[in-house]
Amino acid sequence: MTMPDFLLHALLAGLALALVAGPLGSFVVWRRMAYFGDTLSHAALFGVAIGLLLDISPTLAVTVGCLLLALLLVTLQQRQPLASDTLLGILAHSTLSLGLVTLSFMPEVRIDLMSYLFGDLLAVSREDLYWIVAGSALVLLILVPLWRPLLAITVHEELARVEGLPVAAIRLALMLLIALVIAVAMKIVGVLLITSLLIIPAAAAQRHARTPEQMALGASLLGLLAVCGGLSLSWFQDTPAGPSIVVCAAALFLLSFLLRRRAV
Q1: What is the number of alpha carbons within 13 Å of residue 69 lying toward its C-beta?
Q2: Which of 74, 138, 227, 244 has the most CB atoms lying inside 10 A of its own CB?
Q3: How far apart are CA 242 and CA 135, in angstroms?
């Protein structure tokens, strides 16, 4: 039996994202950047609205918007007196609300808001697939040479600075990579579930990994399993694809607690 094109596109897109979400999600967990990811994902809906308003590709608008917001966050964190979590909370809810308000001013535009909020993986087109695979490959290519510097600033930022590493530039690069992955992932799991796909597999792999590389690889493998399991659940039980993937990832996370923790 031949796999339908739309299901093949969904599977390939999900697997491409899972591969890159593993190592990147590991840094999100290590550096406790979950709220940063939430802020960018909420801002993605504003990018969709701007894209529709300017009649450009929503995917391109979301990508540019997330990258610009990441730059804005870095700038504001350096110059404002507010705590980072307060600033992130303000920007997250403000951009999400701005997106919804902007969409309300375009009654002639008909969009499936639920697909943006919760994903519509089974609707991934060939063009979307090219965009997702290209974005994931780009992130991986950039992440490989940055792996050791990122580990250095994650373990001890001050020591990395003393050793001459450009800490600020490396931190900014990580935020931009997260922004790019979130923009790419929006089509798959939706605005409200993107961060969970970054965090849950990495958190499950952390419990049994001895090295950072093992955790990154384990997170990618668990992400691949979650994508395959979620798509199977969606196909056979007619459940929404994005939330089904997250549910499978959560099940794998719970399973990791039933297994004996690997001795270090």
Answers
A1: 31
A2: 227
A3: 19
How many CA within 13 A on the CB side of residue 257? 6
C-beta of residue 188 within 8 angstroms of C-beta of residue 124: yes
Give the separation between CA 51 and CA 68, rounded to whole angstroms.
Answer: 14
How do residues 66-88 score in pLDDT, each as one tens digit? 888 888 887 877 776 777 778 88
Q: pLDDT for 163-210, tens place per residue?
A: 899 988 998 899 889 888 888 888 788 876 788 889 999 999 998 899
Residue 180 and residue 66 in contact, taking contact as beta carbons nearer than 8 Å: yes
Q: Is the whole model's pTM more than 0.90, yes or no?
A: no
What are the residue ranges of helices labelled H in the chain? 5-30, 34-53, 58-79, 84-104, 113-118, 126-155, 157-162, 167-189, 194-206, 212-237, 241-258
pLDDT at res. 73: 82
How far is Cα 223 from Cα 18, in angstroms, rounded to an integer?
Answer: 5
Cα–Cα distance between 24 and 38 in angstroms, integer?
15
Report the alpha-carbon distance of residue 111 to residue 104 in Å, rounded. Answer: 11
Answer yes or no: are the C-beta atoms of 11 and 62 closer than 8 Å.
no
Looking at residue 109, what is its pLDDT? 67
